[in-house]
Amino acid sequence: MKNLVIYSSVAFLSIAGFGELYAQDNFTLGAQYKPRFELRNGFKRPILEDQDPAYFVEQRARLWADYKSEKFAIHINVQDVRMWGATDQIYKSDGTQNGSLTNVYEAYGIYNFSKKFSGKIGRQELDYDNARFLGNLDWAMQGRSHDALLFRYKTKDLDVHIGGALNQLQKEPTYLTAAAYDVNNYKNMQFLWLHKDWDKFNASFLFHNDGRELVNDDGQFTGVEYHRQTVGLIPKYSVKKFAMDGEFYYQMGSSPTGRDVSAYFLALHATLKTKFAPITLGAEYASGTEYDEAENDNSWAPLYGTNHKFYGYMDYFYVGNAHSQFGNNAGLIDFHLKSKLTFKEKNNLMVAIHHFMSPVDVIDRTNNEALDASLGTEVDLTYSRKLTKGVSAFAGYSHMFATESLEELKLNDAELIAGSSDFQGWFWLGMNFSAELFNKSKK
Questions:
Q1: In this model, does residue 324 exceed pLDDT 80?
Q2: Using 50, 70 and 90 to split pLDDT, how confident is the model at 94?
Q3: How far, in Å, CA of 235 to CA of 268, rounded?
Q4: Cα–Cα distance for residue pair 417/414, rounded to 1 Å
Q5: Which whole-number Å values give the CA distances from 71 to 39, 111, 350, in the listed order?
Q6: Following DSSP, what letter does each residue of 207-271 receive, concatenated?
Q7: Bridge-based pairing state of the strands 201-215 and 347-357
Q8: Where are the domains of the chain?
């Protein structure tokens, strides 16, 4: 029934678009198809010697519709995400099939109070600056979207966003009393984002409050809300062939487990454009919590960012998996060199080299002695080619040269005894088809 409603809604919008447009300014219908093959031999964590690599094909299909007028706009984006072969060839969904997701990725309305001030309500992406803290997670097939209310004030050189969200679990008409919100998400959220442009300099400021329900020692949600605040400043300076940017975040308040939070993230990047290719040097510091700390949480949490973009493409850090000891996230120091080579116009080769270190002690569990701070070096290669308008092909290979310290953070006792493989690599191959199917404007 859910899928029928989704497809019927899109069909209605499509029919409406081909009809008379005397009551609208513009109607657009677009589509995307994005398949990707992956071979994972040490992705997210070191693979063991006796384990076989994972390989699969995953795909995303999206169909979106836009209606825009002078005073308001409506956007609906439905998607189907699935793993090849995860369902029978002939089946009807009964809730037991795994490996597929059909949902409304975005559904929101915008009302323009004036040319500078507008409101936006509904399911939407929150994608700001470089997506370090708030990002749409487009690498993941399902993406990331929020059910939120947003107000925006925009002039030529100033952009101000004020937003918030309130999440609940129970469904109407059974929602008559308060209930625990046992979802890995905030229960409520508020944020303020400002961006200001000058001649050769721009900067963004972020304040974000994340409210979650406290979980007791038995793993039960208590109904008590704990709030964590994040304050960030993201400046950027550019002149001719040189650019420099920084990121400065501080987190405070309480974690979902009730621990006092005091954490920070610092980053500095410099880019020089040469005749051959742009070269970027960067250093990043994400604070961590010592392995024996029981009261405080000093670990930086990039809560809703597109983490795959930053900490190495093999996703050993911050992407839905822990790098920790005794439940304490170790944080991360990342020194990196990046470049992007363009040749014959349609071809691009991106190269990134990361050297990772731990900002806190990593302990050898067999003798309780501190190990070297180095976690390893990762090399990322990504190739892309534009085949024609709306169609691109991509390929990538990443290799992790892991250290004993990294294995201590990523593997449990039994896995350490079994031993990791000498070869830790990840290969992927994908395509992206994107098209505007229909566009008609009021004459």
A1: yes
A2: low
A3: 10
A4: 5
A5: 48, 6, 42
A6: EEEEEEEEE-TTS-EEEEEEEEEEEEEEEEEEETTEEEEEEEEEEEEE-TTSPEEEEEEEEEEEE
A7: unpaired
A8: 2-441
- For 55, the 3-state DSSP assignment is strand
Q: Which two tokens stand for residue 6?
A: 């989704």
Whether omega for the bond prior to residue 173 falls within 30 degrees of 0, making it cis, is yes
What pLDDT score does 31 carry?
A: 98
Give yes or no for a contact between 333 and 359, defined as CB atoms under 8 angstroms apart.
yes
In degrees and rounded to multiples of 5, residue 314 shows phi and psi of: -80, 0
- Residues 6 or more apart whose Cβ sits within 8 Å of residue 347: 383, 384, 385
Tokens of 379: 């090399």
Q: Closest Cα to residue 215, out of 179, 268, 275, 256?
A: 256
**C-alpha closest to that of 159 among 151, 168, 148:** 151
Which CATH class, in words, describes the domain spanning 2-441?
mainly beta
Q: 210-234, pLDDT tens digit by residue?
A: 999 876 777 676 777 899 999 999 9
pTM: 0.90
β-pairing, 260-273 with 328-329? Answer: unpaired
pLDDT at 385 over 90: yes
Considering only residues 230 and 6, tell me which one the structure prediction assigns the higher pLDDT: 230
First to last CA, the chain: 38
Contacts of 190 (CB under 8 A, 6+ apart): 163, 164, 208, 209
Q: Which of the pair, 185 or 316, is modelled with greater confidence?
A: 316
Helix (H, G, I), strand (E, B) or coil at 396: strand
Q: Residue 95: its pLDDT value, please?
A: 56
User: According to the model, what pLDDT value does residue 178 have?
Assistant: 75
